[in-house]
Amino acid sequence: MPDRFEQGRLAIADLACSRGGRLLFEGLDLRLDAGDLLLVRGPNGSGKTSLLHLLAGMASPSAGNVLWNESPIAEDLPAHRARLHRLTLSDGLKGALTAGENLRYATRLLNGAGDVGAALEALDLAGLAMRPVRFLSTGQRRRVALARLTTVARPLWLLDEPETGLDQANRQRLTDLIAAQRREGGIVVLVSHADLDLDPTVSLDFEP
Ligand SMILES: Nc1ncnc2c1ncn2[C@@H]1O[C@H](COP(=O)(O)OP(=O)(O)OP(=O)(O)O)[C@@H](O)[C@H]1O
């Protein structure tokens, strides 16, 4: 498949994060190149989501920098947000809209030219495409959120426990999506408690 986005490098330099007066981590150094997967693990409350917030430019580190192609993301946050997809437990889907409408809406919002039909197909949602999302099961709804990742190509995916609510077959679809994103030269940062069949480039284990 041809590149559909400009590949880049994500680096973390001497990064530290405090929340509520507590130091969660410090001195974190990492470099991720096109196709790399960072797997972040650790117990509840150890700072995994906080790290994703820093990588998304949604929170400021207490020290250090997040860099894209060697430039601090803080220098141009809108540009950084435009190169990433975040997937969190709150999926941001519109309950009154169907899966297809949600994907078309997201595609327009993100100024993309995505293939909604292919995205629905990839997540086995074609048969559910006409049903308002509020009538979908937890796992079905989760699949719509995953499909949204593929409609607009972006080089950086920040995924917070994306396996939540997915059965085995759909966990496999999730690992396939991640593998495809990596093959296309995307970078994936994955927070997960599950034992997904992936081959991370780097693993980061947070302490309690
Ligand atoms: N905005 C905030 N203000 C104060 N404390 C916060 C804030 N956000 C997070 N925290 C605290 O920071 C710590 C780390 O939270 P974080 O959400 O990063 O953990 P996590 O490793 O992702 O946990 P989980 O596995 O439960 O999702 C927790 O103790 C949390 O209460």
From TrEMBL:
<keyword id="KW-0813">Transport</keyword>
<dbReference type="GO" id="GO:0022857">
    <property type="term" value="F:transmembrane transporter activity"/>
</dbReference>
<dbReference type="GO" id="GO:0017004">
    <property type="term" value="P:cytochrome complex assembly"/>
</dbReference>
<keyword id="KW-0547">Nucleotide-binding</keyword>
<keyword id="KW-0201">Cytochrome c-type biogenesis</keyword>
<dbReference type="GO" id="GO:0005524">
    <property type="term" value="F:ATP binding"/>
</dbReference>
<dbReference type="InterPro" id="IPR003593">
    <property type="entry name" value="AAA+_ATPase"/>
</dbReference>
<dbReference type="InterPro" id="IPR003439">
    <property type="entry name" value="ABC_transporter-like_ATP-bd"/>
</dbReference>
<keyword id="KW-1278">Translocase</keyword>
<protein>
    <submittedName>
        <fullName>Heme exporter protein A</fullName>
    </submittedName>
</protein>
<dbReference type="InterPro" id="IPR005895">
    <property type="entry name" value="ABC_transptr_haem_export_CcmA"/>
</dbReference>
<dbReference type="Pfam" id="PF00005">
    <property type="entry name" value="ABC_tran"/>
</dbReference>
<dbReference type="InterPro" id="IPR027417">
    <property type="entry name" value="P-loop_NTPase"/>
</dbReference>
<dbReference type="GO" id="GO:0016887">
    <property type="term" value="F:ATP hydrolysis activity"/>
</dbReference>
<keyword id="KW-0067">ATP-binding</keyword>
<feature type="domain" description="ABC transporter">
    <location>
        <begin position="10"/>
        <end position="206"/>
    </location>
</feature>
<keyword id="KW-0472">Membrane</keyword>
